[in-house]
Amino acid sequence: MKREWISGLIAGVGLSAAAALYVISPSKVSPDQIQASVTQAPDLINRAWVLPVAATFKSNVTWQSNGSRCGPASVANVFRSIGEEETTEAEVLDGTGKCWTGVCIMGLTLDELAEVAKAQTTRDVSVLRDLTSEAFHEHMRRANDPGRRYIINFSREMIFGAGVGHHSPIGGYLETEDMVFVLDVNEDFKPWLIDRERLFSAMDTMDGDKKRGLLLIDE
């Protein structure tokens, strides 16, 4: 019995290590795939950076420290843009009990990320999921409101053909082009623009037994 327990423990540790490795180094998306999948044309990106919300990030995104911590990195970037004190991954996670090993095993769900954000701010934090395309469009129209910040949870695979679930702040919405500005916290991707309906389709996917969605932080 003892040998079986030890074997089970080792197997469990092995699975946890494999999961950690997976989220730290998820399936790679090549630079060519990125360029072919989203818009990073300098003229449009420059226009996006002067949108009211994007401008508060001062053309700067602090990259996530590893592949599992996109959620805390997104919250830290958003907090910096609205003047909160907790502007690093470590400060955002402090006291939450999340990712204490340095790795968020299998990443954080949207609900877990909301818990993290709520622990560090007095602002309203809401999870928005099961949205229709029309409701998502309305939220994107409001994404240029300086009093609101959105973080989107979406499937990379739906956009880039590879990758896993991911969190990143939304910098704003170019309404004439119907494109959303995603402030990707992964340095390999950097910020990009995408057609609103394509981003909605990548968000309108399952993460376990719940849909992905938006995290809204507002005054």
TrEMBL record:
Check the record and name the InterPro entries matching this protein: Papain-like_cys_pep_sf, PCS-like, PCS_N, PCS_N_sf
PROSITE patterns named in the record: PCS (PS51443)
Q: Which molecular function terms from Gene Ontology are attached?
A: glutathione gamma-glutamylcysteinyltransferase activity; metal ion binding
GO terms, biological process:
phytochelatin biosynthetic process; response to metal ion
Is-annotated flag, keyword Transferase? yes
User: Which residue numbers delimit the Peptidase C83 domain?
Assistant: 1-219
* Entry keywords, A to Z: Acyltransferase, Cadmium, Metal-binding, Transferase
Q: State one Pfam family annotation.
A: Phytochelatin
This protein's record includes keyword Metal-binding? yes
Top-level taxonomic group: Bacteria
Q: Quote the EC number.
A: 2.3.2.15
Protein name, entry field: glutathione gamma-glutamylcysteinyltransferase
> What organism, scientifically named, is this protein from?
Rhizobium gallicum
